[in-house]
Write a structure and sequence with these properties.
heterodimer; A: mainly alpha; ABC transporter involved in vitamin B12 uptake, BtuC; two-stranded antiparallel sheet; 1% strand; globular; B: alpha/beta; Rossmann fold; six-stranded mixed sheet; 17 helices; 22 strands; 33% helix
Chain lengths: 310, 498
C-alpha cells in the first residue's frame, strides 16, 4: 500500500524525467541551457494560472474565467503603461487590482448564490472577454513604456525576469498551501465541506480568498503576457484556462476536490511545456501537438484513477 | 433562573417549524452531569432537529437552552463547540485526505513563527497524547481515509474530548461498526461518564440503549413524551411511548402456504469470501440469513444477483440451472436484490418517486424510445398505493422521504420487474419501528403471493420473527440451517461465533 501510494505521488515526476530523457536522445538541442530558458519562460504564464486554479480545484471548485481575466488585466495594465504617463508601478498595481476584483466577484457570487462555480465562472469568462473588448475599444493597445516591457522581456544576470517571477510565485503558493492555516482549510473544504463547516471553519471566507488569489495570479499572468508581447490584446488568453486546469490535473489535483499540490502543478505545467517544445524540435505541426496534448491529459487522469483503485 | 446544580443542559419550550410543519413543538430536555441519556423516537420525531439546534446548526423559533447556567441563544456552531457541546455525526464528518491529528485539531490548528504558520509537530504530539490516554492505538500521521469507520469514530470522540466537551452527542454511533468495536466504544463512553461528561445517545437499537443508557427521553411527532430512568422502562412500554400505540406484536402473523422450490444454491464458493454454501427457498417462504459482520452474508447475495463473480457452485431457479454473470441475468431469471446500501445503490435521491420506481422497468412503458408517461403514471400510482408509500405526490424527490418510505420505493422499483425470488439485505436498517412493521407486513404479502424471500439481517429479533428457516454463517462458512423451532437467539449466536 505505501509503495503504491508513493508511486502515485512520484508517477508524474517519473513520467516527466522519462520524457526529458527521451527527448534528449532524439534532439541534441533539447538539453541545452538556452532551450530550457525558452521552455521555462514559455511555461511561466500557464504555470501562474495553474497555481491559482490549483487552489480553486482543491476546494472542489473550478475557474473558467482565467483566460478572460488575463485579457482584462492585460488591457487595463497596457492602457496605463504608455511611455511618459505613470510610473510602471501604477499599471502593475491597477492591473493586479482588476484581477483581484474579478476573482473576488467570482467568489462572492459563488458563496452567496450557491450557484456552481462552473456556471459562475463560465459567465465571468464571457463578461471578462466583453469587458476587455470594451476597455480597448476592440483594438490592441501598443506603444508601452520600456520599463513595463522589461517585466516580461527583460533579463537579470542573463535569466529572463518571468523565470524569477515564476519561482517566487511558486514558493509563495506552495507555502501558503502547505504551511498555513488557510492552506489547511482549503484541503479541508475540498475533502468534506460539511465536516469543515462543522469544525467551525468559515467556509465562505476561505472560498472568497481562494477565488481572489486565483484572480490575482491571473492578473500577474496577464501583465506578464502583455509585457512580453508589448501589446494589450483584448483577444489574448483565450483557452488559457484549459491549459492551466490541465496542468493542475496532470499534476495530481482531483476535480472532486481535496487533493493536489503546487509541486505537482508546476511539474504538470513543465510537462506540457516540454512536450510542446519537444514536438517543435521534432518539427511536428501544431495540429498534431494538440492531439498529443489531449491524449496526455486523459492518460494522466486514467493512470491516476488506476492508482487509486488499486 | 437558578438551576439544580446536577443538570448541565436544560431545554425548555423549544419550538421549530419548517414551512408550516412543526418539527419541534414545546419540547423539554434535561441532561445531568455524567449521565448517558438516550434520545428515542421514530424517524421524524424531531431528534435530529433538536440536536441540530443544540449544536447551533439551526436556530429555534422559540424556547430556551441553558448550558451550565447560561443561555446558548445567539451562539453559533463555533461558540457552542468551544463552550463544550460536541456531536459525533452518523455520516462521520471527517476530511479523508488530512491526517488523524489534522482532523482532530481542524479549526484549532497550532501555529508558530508567523501568524497562521502551521505547527503540525505540535498537534501530532497533542493528538498522540490524547489517543494514548484513551487507550487507542492509531498512528496520528495516517491519512483519515485509511481508517475503519470505528477508528474514525474514535478520532471524532478524541476531537470532542480535545475540545473539552462536557456534552457529547452521538448519532447512531453503532450503525456501521462490529460488535467488538461496540464494546470498545462502550468502554470509552463509561470512562467519559466517570469524568463527568454527559452523553446524548441516539440509536434505534434497543439492546444497546438498555446496555448503556441511564435515562431515556422519548419524542414523538415533534413533541416531548416522557423522560424515565432506563431501569424503570421496559422494552414494550418504551415502544408504546415511541409509536403512541401498543404494538401487540411487532411481527405480523404469516399466512402464506409453502410451494415448490424456487431457488436453490449448491456448493457456492468464492475465494476469501464464502465457501460451500447450500440452501433452497420455496415459494411462500422466508429464509433468514444470520451472522456477524464480515460473515459473508452480503457477499453471497451479491454473487447470486450477479454483482460479483463466484468461483465454483451452481444456482438453480425452479430446478433449471442458470448462469448469472450480471444483475440483468438475475432479473431475467426472476431474482431481485434490495441492497443494504440503500443510499448508495438503492435510489437516486434527486429524482422523483415516480422516476425512481419506474427506472428498472422503463422498457415496459416505452414505445420507440419514448416513455409513455400516462402508462408510467398509472403503474407508479398503483405501486405507491399497494406499498402504502407516504409521499405528498409521486413527483416528490425521494431524498425528501423518510428512511422507511425510501426503502419502500426501492422495493417498489424491484417489484415492477416481477421477480419471484427477492433477496432483501438489511431491509429495515436505520428505519424506525413503525416503518419496520410496515416492511414486515410487505414481506408477508410477498410470500402470500407465492414469492420466495431471502432476508439478510443483523437484528436477531427480526430474523427470529420473520424467518421460516435460518441459515447461519460464520467467517464465510455455513455453520447451520435451522428450522423455525430450532432457531433461538442462543442457537443462532452459538453458530454465528462458531
Amino acid at each position: 500500500m505505501p509503495f503504491i501510494k508513493k508511486l502515485g505521488q512520484y508517477g508524474i515526476i517519473i513520467a516527466f524525467l522519462a520524457i526529458c530523457l527521451l527527448l534528449s536522445f532524439i534532439s541534441p538541442r533539447f538539453l541545452t541551457l538556452s532551450n530550457w530558458t525558452i521552455i521555462i519562460t514559455q511555461v511561466s504564464i500557464n504555470a501562474l494560472l495553474a497555481f491559482g486554479v490549483t487552489f480553486v480545484i482543491i476546494t472542489g471548485g473550478i475557474d473558467l474565467s482565467l483566460g478572460s481575466m488575463v485579457a482584462v488585466t492585460g488591457v487595463v495594465a497596457a492602457s496605463l503603461a504608455h511611455p511618459d504617463t505613470y510610473p510602471v508601478v501604477v499599471p502593475v498595481m491597477v492591473g493586479l487590482l482588476s484581477g483581484v476584483l474579478m476573482g473576488g466577484l467570482n467568489g462572492l457570487i459563488i458563496t452567496k448564490s450557491k450557484v456552481p462555480p462552473f456556471i459562475v465562472t463560465l459567465g465571468m469568462m464571457t463578461i471578462g472577454r466583453g469587458l476587455a473588448l470594451i476597455l480597448s475599444r476592440g483594438r490592441p493597445i501598443s506603444n508601452l513604456s520600456n520599463a513595463f516591457n522589461f517585466i516580461g522581456g527583460g533579463s537579470i544576470f542573463g535569466i529572463p525576469l518571468p523565470i524569477f517571477i515564476l519561482i517566487i510565485a511558486f514558493f509563495i503558493c506552495h507555502i501558503l498551501l502547505k504551511k498555513t492555516v488557510l492552506g489547511r482549510y482549503i484541503y479541508a473544504i475540498g475533502g468534506n465541506e460539511q465536516a469543515a463547516q462543522a469544525s467551525g471553519i468559515r467556509v465562505n471566507k476561505v472560498k472568497m480568498a481562494v477565488y481572489t488569489i486565483c484572480g490575482g495570479l491571473a492578473a500577474l499572468a496577464g501583465i506578464l503576457l502583455t509585457s512580453r508581447i508589448t501589446t494589450g490584446q483584448p483577444n489574448a488568453g483565450a483557452g488559457f484556462e484549459l491549459d492551466a486546469i490541465a496542468a493542475a490535473i496532470i499534476g495530481g489535483a482531483s476535480t472532486s476536490g481535496g487533493t493536489g499540490t503546487m509541486t505537482g502543478t508546476l511539474i504538470g505545467a513543465l510537462l506540457i511545456g516540454v512536450i510542446s517544445n519537444g514536438l517543435d524540435l521534432l518539427n511536428v505541426t501544431s495540429y498534431y501537438q494538440q492531439v498529443v496534448m489531449g491524449a496526455i491529459i486523459i492518460g494522466a487522469v486514467v493512470l491516476d484513477s488506476w492508482n487509486k483503485n488499486k | 433562573m437558578p438551576h439544580p446544580p446536577n443538570f448541565t443542559l436544560q431545554v425548555r419550550h423549544l419550538t421549530k417549524s419548517f414551512g408550516g410543519v412543526k418539527a419541534l413543538d414545546d419540547v423539554q430536555f434535561d441532561l445531568r452531569i455524567g449521565e448517558v441519556h438516550a434520545l428515542m423516537g421514530e424517524n421524524g420525531a424531531g431528534k435530529s432537529t433538536l440536536m441540530k439546534i443544540l449544536i447551533g446548526m439551526l436556530k429555534p423559533d422559540a424556547g430556551t437552552i441553558t448550558f451550565e447556567g447560561s443561555s446558548l441563544q445567539n451562539c453559533d456552531v463555533n461558540e457552542i463547540m468551544q463552550k463544550g457541546i460536541s456531536m459525533i455525526h452518523q455520516e462521520m464528518l471527517v476530511i479523508p485526505e488530512l491526517t488523524v491529528a489534522q482532523n482532530i485539531f481542524l479549526g484549532r490548528e497550532s501555529t508558530h513563527w508567523f501568524p497562521n504558520w502551521l505547527d503540525d509537530e505540535a498537534i501530532d504530539k497533542k493528538a498522540q497524547l490524547l489517543l494514548s490516554q484513551m487507550g487507542i492505538n492509531i498512528e496520528v500521521t495516517t491519512q483519515m481515509k485509511y481508517l475503519s469507520v470505528a477508528e474514525m469514530q474514535m478520532v471524532e470522540i478524541a476531537k470532542a474530548i480535545s475540545n473539552n466537551a462536557k456534552v457529547i452527542i452521538m448519532d447512531e454511533p453503532t450503525s456501521a461498526i462490529s460488535d467488538k468495536e461496540v464494546t470498545t466504544l462502550f468502554k470509552i463512553i463509561r470512562e467519559l461518564k466517570a469524568k463527568g461528561v454527559a452523553i446524548i445517545y441516539i440509536s434505534h437499537k434497543m439492546e444497546e440503549i438498555y446496555a448503556i443508557a441511564d435515562t431515556i427521553t422519548v419524542l414523538r411527532d415533534g413533541r416531548y413524551i416522557a423522560t424515565k430512568p432506563s431501569v424503570e422502562l421496559d422494552k414494550k412500554s418504551l415502544i408504546a411511548l415511541m409509536v403512541g400505540r401498543e404494538l401487540s406484536d411487532l411481527f405480523p402473523p404469516q399466512t402464506a402456504t409453502k410451494g415448490n422450490v424456487l431457488l436453490s444454491v449448491r456448493n457456492l464458493s468464492s475465494k476469501g469470501k464464502f465457501s460451500a454454501i447450500n440452501f433452497e427457498v420455496k415459494a411462500g417462504e422466508v429464509l433468514g440469513i444470520a451472522g456477524l459482520m464480515g460473515a459473508g452474508r452480503t457477499e453471497i447475495a451479491r454473487a447470486i444477483y450477479g454483482l460479483d463473480a463466484f468461483d465454483t457452485g451452481e444456482i438453480f431457479v425452479k430446478g433449471q440451472k442458470v448462469v448469472i454473470t450480471s444483475p440483468q441475468d438475475a432479473l431475467k431469471n426472476g431474482i431481485g436484490y434490495v441492497s443494504e446500501d440503500r443510499k448508495g445503490l438503492g435510489f437516486i435521491p434527486n429524482m422523483s418517486v415516480k422516476h425512481n420506481i419506474s427506472l428498472g422497468s422503463l422498457a415496459r412503458y416505452t414505445k420507440i424510445g419514448f416513455v409513455q408517461t400516462q402508462k408510467e403514471q398509472i403503474i407508479v400510482t398503483q405501486t405507491v398505493k399497494d406499498l402504502k408509500i407516504k409521499t405528498a405526490t409521486i413527483n416528490q424527490k425521494v431524498a425528501q422521504l423518510s428512511g422507511g418510505n425510501q426503502q419502500k420505493v426501492v422495493i417498489g422499483k424491484l417489484l415492477l420487474s416481477n421477480p419471484e425470488i427477492i433477496i432483501l439485505d438489511e431491509p429495515t436498517r436505520g428505519i424506525d419501528i413503525g416503518a419496520k412493521f410496515e416492511i414486515y407486513k410487505l414481506i408477508n404479502e410477498l410470500t402470500a403471493k407465492g414469492k420466495a424471500v431471502v432476508m439478510i439481517s443483523s437484528e436477531l429479533p427480526e430474523i427470529l420473527g420473520m424467518s421460516d428457516r435460518v441459515l447461519v454463517l460464520s467467517k464465510g462458512n455455513q455453520t447451520a440451517l435451522l428450522s423455525k423451532e430450532e432457531a433461538t437467539q442462543e442457537n443462532i449466536m452459538r453458530y454465528a461465533i462458531h
